[in-house]
Amino acid sequence: MQVRSSLLKASSMVPGSWGQSNDYCSWERVTCNCNDDDDDAVARVSALDLTSMYVYAPQEKSVVGVPENNNGCSWTLNLTVLSPLRELQMLDLSSSYACLQNLDDFQNLKNMRELHLRSNQLSGSIPASLLELPRLQYLDLSENLFQGHIPLSPSANISSSLWALKLSGNNLSGAFYFFWLRNCKMLEKIDLSGNNGLSIDVEFLGIVPPFQLRSLMLSGCNVDNNVIVGPNFLCTQRHLQMLDLSHNNFTGNIPNWIFANMATLVYLDIADNSLV
């Protein structure tokens, strides 16, 4: 109901079922976990689908628009309102164009598995607590205003269940070492595109990574030229389907290993480099 209140303050339409009954599990965009064998069990919210939630409802005009405040936001949501939802496993706020406040309070949501925050107005540094959620499988922070380094290190406690990491379209900088992901055995998708200040090192220090990527998107980053020269961990990825290395100022010959070792590849983009 606090989410509903935030939307109403921004002159947005809200789902008609919200607040119409005490059975919140029947409300639109809300999913609950409950024990069918226990009649006394309390149903807990396990998923909230708030995708494209903001819909402007002008009082005097029938034309739907999306006004913005001075910060470029359509509406503001303080994420502390979600803290009591301890069983929350999936939150999707994609394309909400919201100013989301207090992102650090997600550290209390230990059951979070999927966090979709693409296309909002998130700024500042990425909280380290997000990448250390113990059961995290899917993290999408793309198309926001994040700056600074990605809060990972050799000792970072990253979930071994992580299979998708999407941080494209921000203003991230500093260094990112693929070696930091050496314990993510389920990893399938990485997208770091569009972070011009981000320096990417693909070396695995002689270790064969435990994962098999299906999609690797590194367009418009400062990627180490060794990704082209090889050998590197990409030679071990036998299930890769999408590879984007465009806009990286690579030099030298187009590597034969791309075509010789990747029979599964269906999408390759190496445009806007200096390859011959």
TrEMBL record:
| InterPro entries to which the protein is assigned, alphabetical | Leu-rich_rpt, LRR_dom_sf, LRR_N_plant-typ
Q: Which UniProt keywords apply?
A: Leucine-rich repeat, Repeat
Q: Which Pfam families match?
A: LRR_1, LRR_8, LRRNT_2
Q: Which residues form the Leucine-rich repeat-containing N-terminal plant-type domain?
A: 2-33
In terms of superkingdom, the source organism counts as: Eukaryota
State the signal peptide span: none
Record protein name field: Leucine-rich repeat-containing N-terminal plant-type domain-containing protein
